[in-house]
């Protein structure tokens, strides 16, 4: 007989503990029979019916319960855990959230029968503990009493559903001393990895109490009193556990597919009869399926959504639940060199475009540096929020705007292809803020491209998507928008949260149709350059997050400096001559890029109408006047960075020259020719200020 698993990769297996048992008896009984004759219980349970647990207190003199976890956010998550016994990640934040919610739930249930449980808690015969590491999936119950010991194990959690026969379970009991000694050791192992729910967490004087007597607490549990926090402050050393990939097994894959299908089916109501009851009959099924099949295509959840999971802590990247890259992996140098040359030649080809081709190449380089880094943005933003650093220093959004034939859409697709070998995009007609934010969680680290966003959708959905984004997850997809819309009409509070790249060059349509190389490149480009980039970036990103956490917000790492440095080192290694557009970048570079339209307009205005420019006496401020055209002044105001803008009165906009120079590196009045043009204009007879160049304006 052939081995069905012979084709599979077999990693070195961990050692398992197997119990060699012999069946001596099986019988039908109720749960009271199992617990009868014993007075003490020590239990480890993964999930539980607390009502059932507490119902035991009337039968047992002493109870100690260790909870594996209440980390059950959805039925699908529970099924995944039970099917695979693997969590993608379980760290301090998960532990903190689990323990807070469990203790608060425990308080509510205890409070319902406080007259029964309060004495037991006070005399120490009812105790609770919580595991601090990854959730345990064990079910182990140790019973003892005057007549001996009993071990109860199997598939059943300590719940009403399991022990009341509402679902099929396997329950195994051992009454012999040898089994007791072995399972006692197991219990002690988990006991040592747990922390107590101390009495003062559960018992206290209610703020509304008129008598001042002790009772079961019902107020929200402060994070400072969560057991794991109290234990760490008392000296417990807690080590963060890195992520564990969920295996690509039948159960995990099937359940994830079921989750996506469930999202789709939620949009279809089950028809009800006249009494308001959803009775599922053959006719109901036909109606339901017809409604489902009539859903518009954009509202259906795609079955084949790819996903990349990037774990900075473990240094591993999984693509569609399979290990794709590890930090220690050696990427073939020849493949890296090939991809590097392809991308350098491609960006260099924009030199043939009409318009400001040099600026286009610089913008595309900046976009490449950002997009390669962008899968780390969520992880770094999370650290920034925790440590009171501005999270928008690590933007997860970018917009490429400019001329309609500037190659924006194709460029984003090629760069995305060079990352994970996958391009995921949605059309402008299908774009909504809700759909984009939902998709980015499905994709993980794979960029989401939204092509040719129309002006109405840019104005309607982008503000909602960006302004309301307070996501604290440590992985989700970067979102890239391309548009022909003038980015100056996007509010400044949005552009400061996005990478903005202006493409002021294009090819005529007739030339573009004759150019086959970019589309051929999309098929030929590999992922070797990006895989090599990731192996270098992962340890640095981990160290960068460590700087944030240990610096308490005093250290603000610049991820753009790091990303451009890594890419430049790879180009120096694999390309014969580094092009001049490939230069070091920093966050300040991207800040200046957001203001490039503003700089262009201001320089043009100084060159064509210098008489409309006035300076304060100390040359700290500049006023740009638009000759009575308030609409033009309002349009210009939208392009001015908020730290430069000092206000507008009618047709005149006031600018902060020092902020312009310090933050943007842009100092128009320091240029002798520009200053000379302004002076010359103001010395002309009949000029608005009677020939005086310097306006007496010392106001702020």
Automatic annotation (TrEMBL):
Residues 134-193 form the Restriction endonuclease type II NgoFVII N-terminal domain. InterPro entries: RE_NgoFVII_N. SUPFAM superfamilies: Phospholipase D/nuclease (SSF56024). It holds the Pfam family RE_NgoFVII. It comes from the Bacteria. This is Restriction endonuclease type II NgoFVII N-terminal domain-containing protein.
